[in-house]
Amino acid sequence: MIKVGIIGATGYAGGELVRILTGHKDAEIKWYGSRSYIDQKYADVYRNMFRIVDAVCMDDNMEALADQVDVIFTATPQGLCASLINEEILSRTKVIDLSADFRLKDVKVYEEWYRIEHKAPQFIGEAVYGLCEINREDIRKARLVANPGCYTTCSILTAWPLAKEGLIDMSTLIIDAKSGTSGAGRGAKLPNLFCEVNENIKAYGVAGHRHTPEIEEQLGYAAGEPVVLSFTPHLVPMNRGILATEYASLKKDVSWEDVKAVYDRYYGEEKFIRVLDKDICPETKWVEGSNYVDIGFKIDPRTRRIIMMGAIDNLVKGAAGQAVQNMNLMFGLKESEGLELVPMFP
């Protein structure tokens, strides 16, 4: 049985980790860490856990936690994991960080986009980017995994095979993405109040969203060249879900069957990536509550562009589900253990 500790257990991603791990046959949560609710019953914070979780919330003492568990999930704001982690901790336990602290390989890029000083740059080179379908073998051997962001997971996986095969002109790539409000976290913020969000859609972080360099870096690895792209996120009035619509010029004439064959070559055996049938577009409602990624595409012969579309649940495949998928790989378990979650509808 894998002993698990969670720091940030009362945020939305942390709460989703608890929900998933309570159904995992090979894992047991030993530490529900939360600065905001120390000594309070976890089930009083999330009443859906009444008579399911009896534990109380504890602090974020990673040093003490490392002696008690096999893996630590840090579902915390940027900077916290980097400020707590050290070699002694990593020598005793594995860490899966859901923040951006170890996703970017250039510390200067991290500090420029996140506007904080990186407290543990010595571990950036070692950290494995936890996009399971791309870095599976490296994840198996890792002791520190940087769990990708929600926008990035959807955006990267949607375009990866075409970037890898050189079918699209990467200099023309534009990503338009929409997210539900849970992506902004559980903290009280004026722009996220019901009256501010309901009956509205808005762009934010235009030409400067901090997930941009992460998407560029990973797609650059796929394309084998530096990538600079336009990424614009939008907030929509729903709880969960991300839909990314991506546009790029094709480098050569291809048919739908040609492109489908490329996607199938990369994702045909993947449990959690579903490449949809012709003329079917992904919808967030068909992945809600699950670890699936739905991908579709349409070729526009008039403009010689391809429109790629991806949908995920931002809290599952975009956060907690992918983190558990990473844990399964790191401990040699069945990759889908605890994650065979049928999408919820309605």
SSE arrangement:
Blueprint: E1 2-7, H1 12-21, E2 27-33, H2 42-45, H3 62-66, E3 71-74, H4 80-84, H5 87-92, E4 94-97, H6 107-114, E5 128-129, H7 132-140, E6 144-146, H8 150-164, E7 174-179, H9 194-197, E8 202-203, H10 212-223, E9 230-235, E10 242-249, H11 256-267, E11 273-275, E12 293-300, E13 305-312, H12 316-330
Parallel strand pairs: 1-2, 1-3, 3-4, 4-6, 5-6, 7-9, 11-12
Antiparallel strand pairs: 7-10, 8-9, 10-13, 12-13
Helix pairs in contact: 1-12, 7-12, 8-10
Task: Give structural notes.
The chain is α/β, with parallel strands linked by helices. The chain has 2 domains: 2-126, NAD(P)-binding Rossmann-like Domain (Rossmann fold), CATH 3.40.50; 151-314, Dihydrodipicolinate Reductase, domain 2 (2-Layer Sandwich), CATH 3.30.360. Helix content is 30%, strand content 19%. The protein is built from 12 helices and 13 strands. It has a 7-stranded mixed beta sheet with strand order 8-9-7-10-13-12-11. β1, α1 (12-21) and β2 (27-33) form a beta-alpha-beta unit. It is globular and about 60 Å long. The mean pLDDT is 97.
Label the structural class.
alpha/beta
Number of domains as seen in the coordinates: 2
Principal-axes geometry comes out as: globular
Order of helices and strands: EHEHHEHHEHEHEHEHEHEEHEEEH
